[in-house]
Design goal:
198 residues; alpha/beta; seven-stranded parallel beta sheet; 7 strands; globular
Length: 198
């Protein structure tokens, strides 16, 4: 099984989530975004860039997390079709919500196994309002499809983990102090894991 993390909008935390999922599962990380440096930060032979300039197509493989970002790329359709789940990250601004609905429209005809992640959530009331708004908009457009929506709280620990490409729970290890400091991020990644049906 493989996973796709995708949004047509940049800056919504696709790469942070992709790296966490790939490290959580010990999967290979693949991105089509030549502006991302995460593939270079991954352990040897675990991160790859498939830019449009160099690759006419992107091969599908098992045990891969595909980080597809910030722009339309027709090469991804076959990968989206075969993926176990499509993760669509969003932030809480109206621009991000509109981009999320546009991304959803892009993928739902190809693969209905979708998980929306409200990323960098700060205020529970605002995050819950956003969740209700999204559910309402989705049910208007796609009546028979249930798309789970989960939250990942804002966390400097998660953002920093991008630079060492280490899964947050592995990073905390058995150190009780670290596990206490990282507890929200660990809990959110465990919820993400459940959302991926693992």
């Amino acid at each position: 099984m493989s996973y796709v993390v995708y949004s047509i909008k940049g800056g919504v935390g696709k790469t942070t989530l992709s790296v966490q999922i790939s490290q959580m599962l010990d999967f290979t990380y693949v991105t089509n975004d030549s502006h991302s440096s995460a593939h270079n930060l991954m352990p040897e032979e675990k991160g790859f860039l498939v830019s449009k300039e160099e690759y006419d197509e992107i091969p599908y493989d098992e045990n891969v997390v595909y980080d597809f970002g910030g722009f339309k790329d027709t090469r991804i359709n076959d990968i989206v079709r075969q993926a176990q789940k499509i993760v669509i990250p969003t932030l809480t601004s109206i621009v991000d919500l509109q981009a999320t609905l546009a991304t959803l429209k892009d993928v739902i005809e190809i693969n209905k196994n979708i998980l929306i992640v409200v990323n960098r959530a700060k205020n529970n009331n605002k995050a819950n309002e956003l969740k209700e708004y999204l559910k309402e908009e989705i049910s208007k457009e796609y009546k028979d499809i249930d798309i789970p929506i989960i939250f990942v709280r804002e966390s400097s620990v998660l953002e920093d983990s991008l630079f060492d490409c280490e899964y947050i729970e592995t990073k905390a290890g058995n150190n009780r102090f670290k596990r206490h400091i990282y507890r929200n991020a660990i809990e959110d990644m465990q919820n993400l894991k459940k959302g991926l049906d693992l």
